[in-house]
């Protein structure tokens, strides 16, 4: 298996997807855009956004279907409900360009944990997507999920139209 990396994603691509799905999260301020880990699911490259550590992550249940806790929440979470398909050309590897030492250390620690636990991440993602696509998610969870099939279609259109 290839090693995971953490990326920034372009504002232009986020704006493009938001035209079709308002649940696609905005990039934050330019010096702190949202970062994510990228992996292949359903023959699409998916960007799964990370959330920096917060006190609430420590008390979230491990069995929540739409999040992946990074080191039991001590290093944040991955929001599987907001993952988005993306072409490679809208991604920039984050760790190489982050200047803030504390933030860079957090990203490095998150990445180390994720690479050590990527099989668990892949299994959790597959389980979540299976439940989503078969209509097995509770409505409160479904309400906070991106429309993955629609976004996969729009990602392919983006690739065709913006080469």
Describe this protein's structure.
There is one protein chain. This protein is 39% helix and 18% strand. The chain contains 6 helices and 7 strands; from the N terminus they run E-H-E-E-H-E-E-E-E-H-H-H-H. The longest helix is centred in the middle third of the chain and has 16 residues, at 101-116. It has one domain (6-161): Thiol Ester Dehydrase, Chain A, CATH 3.10.129. Strands 1, 2, 3, 4, 5, 6 and 7 form a 7-stranded antiparallel sheet that branches. The radius of gyration is 15 Å and the shape is globular.
Tally of domains: 1
Run of helices and strands = EHEEHEEEEHHHH
Q: Structural class from helices and strands?
A: alpha+beta
End-to-end distance: 28 Å
What characterizes the major β-sheet?
A: 7 strands, antiparallel
Q: Estimate the global geometry from the Cα principal axes.
A: globular
Which blocks of ≥5 consecutive residues have pLDDT under 50?
Answer: none
**Might you state the CATH topology name?**
Thiol Ester Dehydrase, Chain A
Q: Mind telling me which CATH architecture this is?
A: Roll
SS element count, helices: 6
Rounded to the nearest angstrom, the radius of gyration is 15 Å
